[in-house]
Structures are given as C-alpha cells and as structure tokens.
Design a protein that fits this description.
The chain is mostly helical. It has 10 helices and 2 strands; from the N terminus they run E-E-H-H-H-H-H-H-H-H-H-H. It has one domain: Orthogonal Bundle (Endonuclease III, domain 1), CATH 1.10.340. Helices cover 44% and strands 3% of the residues. It is an enzyme of class 3 (hydrolase).
C-alpha cells in the first residue's frame, strides 16, 4: 500500500532526500520522523503481496487515498478493515444499500460514496477474475523487465507503460478507480517495482529485484 509520488507517501514537499536515523539506517525523509510511517516503510512498503485478499485490500486503499495523503489512510487502516470485513471480496461483493449507508456514517474511514461504490464494484470484479487465474496473478503479470533505480525522488516516475497497461486491463475487467498513477503507486507498494532510493537501507529488500 502507498501512493508513493515524487514527494513521498506523506505528500510533504520536504520529502526530497535521504535521512540517516539514530539507528544508523538510511531512509527517505518521509519515513524518517513519524513512527507510524517509519515502521510501515521498514516492514511493509515494497514487499511482495501475492494473495487475492491482500491485493484487493491494497487496490481498495490506493483508491481511497486518491487526493489525500497516504498517512491519512494508514492511520485509518484498522478502521477500514473493520468496516469492510477485513477486505474479504466475498463479503464486500454482497454489500447493498444498508451497508453503503453504514459506511457513509462511519467517521473512522474516508466517507466518499464514489470510492465506497468502487470498493464494492472491485470486489465483484475480483471474484470474476478467478476464472482468469485470480487478481494477484493478473496484477503481477504486468511486472516490467527492469525496475527504476532512483537516487532522488525527482527521479521516481509517477506512472509507466506497465501501470498504464495494468490500468486499462483492470478497467476492461470491470474495476474502478484504477488509473495509471494509482496503479504505479500500487506496483511500488507491493514490490512489482523497486523505487526505494539507491541509498535507502530497504533497497532490494523485497527479494524480487537484485541489488
């Protein structure tokens, strides 16, 4: 999870370089101060997600993040999981008017009706994709042959030919809120590409890409 951009998932303009923490580890500025973001960066961001439920959750949260900071979504993640039955596609696909009303009244999540509808739409699309090998395999099939090797955030793209192709393919399968920039952020967050800065202690830590 994480809509990483050239200014980092926190959306802060100062997120432009590497900071060496008191533990001696080098991280991007966005992950160097807030303990929540630091832990997320050290343990989750960029690590492979290959199961259906995990992939559906990441796509859902990336959609809710659109227009907001990733920190906002991360702070609400436990509330999102409780509200959306732990992002079980089978459960969410059955949501109707009663569940939508409940979600719109839930102050613990982002109460955006279009994004809530998209989560339900995408749950149904996830189930249909099982006939084609499943959501996780589908998304991973768009892994490029090379990954970026950025030294600064200015060198990190916000989309790629692969994220554009993934976006188009998911839309064809009935998914919503899966634009190419959002899908690039997804690809970063789940390890399909490695956009950790070269000097970061997390570079090449996913096992997907060699050092």
């Amino acid at each position: 999870m994480s809509a990483s951009t050239p200014t980092g998932p926190s959306g802060a303009a100062e997120d432009l370089g590497i900071v060496v923490g008191d533990d001696g580890l080098a991280r991007p500025a966005w992950a160097s101060i807030d303990p929540m973001l630091r832990d997320y960066y050290d343990t989750e961001w960029g690590m492979p997600v290959r199961d259906e439920q995990g992939m559906y959750e990441r796509i859902s949260l990336e959609a809710f993040q659109a227009g907001l900071s990733w920190a906002t979504i991360l702070r609400k993640r436990s509330a999102f999981r409780a509200a959306f039955d732990d992002f079980d596609p089978e459960q969410v696909a059955r949501y109707g008017a009663v569940e939508i009303e409940r979600l719109m009244a839930d102050a613990g999540i982002v109460r955006n009706q279009a994004k809530i509808h998209a989560a339900i739409t995408n749950a149904n699309a996830t189930i249909r994709l099982r006939e084609k090998g499943g959501l996780a395999e589908f998304v991973w099939s768009f892994q490029p042959t090379e990954t970026p090797a950025p030294r600064t955030f200015a060198e990190i793209p916000t989309k790629s030919p692969e994220s554009l192709a993934l976006s188009k393919a998911l839309r064809k399968e009935g998914f919503a809120f899966v634009g190419p920039t959002t899908m690039y952020a997804l690809m970063e967050a789940i390890g399909i590409i490695d956009t950790h800065l070269i000097r970061s202690h997390r570079r090449s830590s996913s096992g997907v890409w060699p050092a």
